Automatic annotation (TrEMBL):
Protein name: Acyl-CoA dehydrogenase
SUPFAM superfamilies: Acyl-CoA dehydrogenase C-terminal domain-like, Acyl-CoA dehydrogenase NM domain-like
InterPro entries from the UniProt entry: Acyl-CoA_Oxase/DH_mid-dom_sf, AcylCo_DH-like_C, AcylCo_DH/oxidase_C, AcylCoA_DH/ox_N, AcylCoA_DH/ox_N_sf, AcylCoA_DH/oxidase_NM_dom_sf
Keywords: FAD, Flavoprotein, Oxidoreductase
Family stated for the protein in its record: Belongs to the acyl-CoA dehydrogenase family.
Residue stretches making up the Acyl-CoA dehydrogenase/oxidase C-terminal domain: 257-382
A Pfam family annotated for this UniProt entry: Acyl-CoA_dh_N
GO molecular function: acyl-CoA dehydrogenase activity; flavin adenine dinucleotide binding
Length: 399
């Protein structure tokens, strides 16, 4: 493994940081999230047109840049630094890998070019608060219980009588960018108990019977929506025998590595702003940053953020370690954001202070993709670290 960045990667990070510094300050973020789209469409198009951001991990044959997931992680680290509100996560990190893995040749040719160009945005809709389970991050996604499990609830799918299409009914909440995405990838259960399985379906924003409502959320930089489907026509993504659960788990591993890098960027910026503040804030005739107790707290935060960065970069190279890297990065962000509020003193406790943007991101990401202890527990379970103990001699005799 070569941990050094290439010249192209360094240039991409530098350019992206410059653009976001000009267009995505705290005031611009707060204004963008309160618009109908939940982000700045002009900035999104600029990032797509000039930097090819949504197409970083899309193959060149479909109009993408053809980079590895690690490059997308580096870009998201810069996006996390400013808490960029954009369709990047929902479209490029969640939807694109699923279309690539499951879509037919015709579907890939139809969908990937506009997704890579930023003209088409997409969102993954899974029933209930089950995104972390569906992506196999905080639990096993086999069995499909999170998608309805053949019972009432979740989203159900039935084939048309002529077999030409499908109809969906049910609802999904907490859909990232679900209120504005032009294309929905809906996980639905079909087959009842006889042929129980979970499939992914494509639903356009203008489909009859589709209703989308933007939800009030803790972190406004991650807009979420409730999606209701009432006999909605849909197209199957791929084929009926596709390994949907495997594709979701694969997308989850990559998403975890990208989210870890994004959380590291946010934690690093929260720490940098705190260091800048304690250098300027004076008490008893000297800056509070000169006090030994403050220095120790900041040093501990620095070590935690750097450890999380190392884990995130390793996961970008080996996505199989994504869940553990995500756990470490989310913990680092939570602790750093909390300390940022503390070290900003009285002004830091005001709800309008910029430090709360990072604190909300930390709390909301744990709710969506964690929590941290479940990420670690599931990773340990898959690794077999907590195998059942061997029976004692008395237990063997009893048997």
């Amino acid at each position: 493994m070569d941990a050094a960045f290439t010249a192209e990667q360094d240039e991409m990070r530098r350019t992206l940081r410059e653009v976001l510094a000009k267009r995505c300050g705290p005031a611009e973020v707060k204004a963008a999230v309160r618009t109908a789209a939940g982000h700045d469409p002009g900035l999104w198009q600029q990032l797509a047109r000039e930097l090819g951001l949504p197409g970083l991990a899309v193959a060149e044959e479909y109009g993408g840049v053809g980079c590895a997931p690690g490059d997308l992680a580096l870009a998201c680290e810069e996006a996390g630094r400013v808490l960029l509100p954009s369709p990047l996560l929902a479209t490029a990190v969640l939807a694109v890998p699923l279309v690539t893995a499951l879509g037919t040749a015709a579907q890939r040719s139809e969908l990937l070019p506009p997704l890579a160009a930023g003209g088409l945005t997409a969102a993954l809709a899974v029933p209930g608060p089950a995104l972390a389970t569906a992506l196999a991050l905080a639990g096993d996604n086999t069995g499909g219980e999170w998608a309805g499990g053949g019972r009432a609830g979740g989203v159900q799918a039935r084939a048309d009588a002529d077999g030409a299409g499908w109809r969906l009914y049910g609802e999904a909440a907490q859909v990232l960018d679900g209120h504005s995405a032009a294309l929905l990838l809906v996980a639905a259960h079909t087959g009842g108990f006889a042929r129980s399985r979970t499939l992914l379906f494509l639903v356009r924003e203008d489909a009859p019977g589709l209703a989308r409502t933007r939800q009030s959320v803790l972190d406004e930089t991650r807009p979420q929506a409730r999606v209701e489907l009432r006999d909605v026509p849909a197209r199957l993504l791929g084929t009926e025998d596709a390994d949907v659960l495997g594709a979701l788990a694969g997308a989850g591993r990559t998403a975890a590595a990208v989210l870890a890098a994004e959380a590291v960027g946010a934690a690093d910026q929260a720490l940098a702003r705190t260091v800048e503040y304690v250098r300027e804030r004076e008490q008893f005739g000297r800056s509070i940053g000169s006090f030994q107790a403050v220095k120790h707290r900041l040093a501990d935060l620095y070590v935690q953020v750097q450890a999380a960065r190392s884990a995130a970069y390793y996961a970008a190279w080996d996505p199989a370690q994504g869940a553990l890297a995500l756990a470490q990065a989310l913990e680092a962000l939570r602790v750093t954001a909390g300390e940022a509020i503390q070290l900003h003193g009285g002004i830091g406790f005001t709800w309008e202070h910029d430090a709360h943007l990072y604190f909300k991101r930390a709390a909301a990401d744990e709710l969506l993709f964690g929590p941290v202890h479940r990420l670690r527990a599931h990773a340990a379970q898959r690794a077999g670290l907590f195998a059942p103990p061997s029976p004692t001699r008395s237990e063997k005799v009893a048997v």
